[in-house]
Design brief:
single chain; 71% helix; membrane; G protein-coupled receptor activity; transmembrane; G-protein coupled receptors family 2 profile 2 domain-containing protein; transmembrane helix
Length: 390
């Protein structure tokens, strides 16, 4: 890059804060994602058959771990030193900025992977597709779509020279013309990116908005399904067994909505930055700085929140099965049952079992108590879907 004078839009202390704050969420995200990877790989060794949910979590966590590691290594220093007014401690080159841009784009790839996780929950719970059908017909696309999103746009950014320093989100490189806004200012000539950067940026941003759209639709479908399930249980189910079913169904629905909720908490800030775009000038830093700070603090945090949800489910399942095992088996047999059921528990199965047995038309019997006793027979816990139970 040629040496060029760029007007700063942040104070020195603000640039320093934006450069350093990202190390906190990326470190926590790397730890959380690594713990999920270790747990899932360990569970693969303990059982002969893995679940689609586990494989999606493995792919999502691997992408988050790679992204977090890349952002830790290629921090604010990777910004070319010619653009030192745009980032604190900038001493990199065009090449380091391009590599940093790839890792920044992987961060947006994790958003699409989270959308695929939400879609999986919808397919299992709302549309009641079997585990085998999803695994053989749909799952490959759930992995392929986010990976291709990262690969395609990374190649475009590298080949076209579109990964350049961001002015508003200081310390990051992504799709941006250089010098900033040279395509809109006739007095400034573009050194890198030129007009095609805007097209690539719109396409990449469109993929991010698509992820949000998928997740919003899935969240609405899950909420409606849970509400319908509650109404069905109140109408047809009676007794302690139905209460147990509803509690377990609530847990599964809550888990899916937790993933979605934390996604919005982390991913909304880049979207806000795309919508609220004040002039990139120092006098507007009271608007630009809070958005940039929250973007760098919250967006990489998804791996940590996913780990919290993931391990909370594991611990809850272990606690429930341990508690039930105390009244059902001896001490030696209880340990075996707990380990097996925690490893093989499908997070969508409890909700599907309730859907399958909550309606007399689906069970073929009019006795609510007999339906629930049969649905929660431990022998049926390993069923892949309610279709198989029928």
């Amino acid at each position: 890059m040629s040496t060029i004078e760029i007007e700063p839009i942040y104070t020195e202390s603000q640039l320093k804060a934006l450069a350093l704050v990202i190390y906190i969420p990326t470190t926590l995200s790397l730890i959380g994602s690594s713990s999920i990877i270790y747990s899932v790989l360990s569970s693969f060794q303990k059982r002969s058959r893995s679940k689609t949910y586990d494989r999606i979590m493995l792919g999502l966590s691997c992408m988050e771990a790679v992204c977090a590691l890349g952002l830790l290594v290629f921090g604010s220093w990777a910004v070319p030193k010619e653009a030192s007014s745009m980032a604190y401690g900038a001493r990199g080159t065009t090449a380091t900025c391009a590599v940093a841009g790839v890792f920044a784009h992987i961060l947006f790839g994790t958003m699409m992977y989270t959308a695929m996780l939400a879609l999986y929950f919808c397919l299992r719970v709302r549309f009641q597709l079997t585990e085998d059908f999803i695994a053989h017909r749909i799952e490959p696309f759930l992995h392929l779509f986010p990976v291709m999103m990262v690969v395609v746009f990374s190649v475009i950014g590298l080949a076209g020279g579109y990964f350049n320093p961001l002015d508003r989100v200081s310390g990051l490189c992504w799709f941006k013309d250089y010098p900033p806004d040279c395509t809109t200012d006739p007095d400034v000539d573009c050194i890198r990116g030129e007009n095609h950067t805007g097209i690539a940026r719109i396409a990449a941003s469109g993929a991010i908005f698509l992820a949000f759209l998928i997740i919003i639709i899935c969240m609405a479908l899950l909420l409606f399904q849970i509400m319908a399930l509650e109404h069905r249980l109140r109408r047809y189910a009676h007794g302690a067994n139905s209460t147990t079913q509803w509690k377990r169904s609530q847990e599964v629905g809550k888990q899916a909505l937790q993933y979605i909720g934390f996604f919005f908490l982390c991913g909304v800030w880049p979207v806000v930055g795309q919508i609220v775009i004040p002039p990139a000038e120092l006098e507007y830093n009271n608007i630009n700085f809070p958005i940039a700070l929250m973007t760098k603090l919250m967006t990489p945090m998804q791996g940590l929140f996913n780990a919290i949800i993931f391990w909370n489910r594991r611990w809850s399942e272990a606690k429930r099965f341990t508690s039930s095992g105390r009244t059902a088996a001896s001490s030696a047999a209880k340990t075996t049952v707990v380990r097996k059921q925690v490893d093989e528990q499908d997070p969508t199965q409890a909700l599907e079992d309730t859907i399958a047995t909550g309606d007399p038309k689906r069970t073929g019997t009019d006795d609510p108590e007999s339906r629930h006793e049969e649905a929660w027979d431990p022998k049926n816990d390993e069923a892949d879907s309610f279709h198989d139970e029928e």
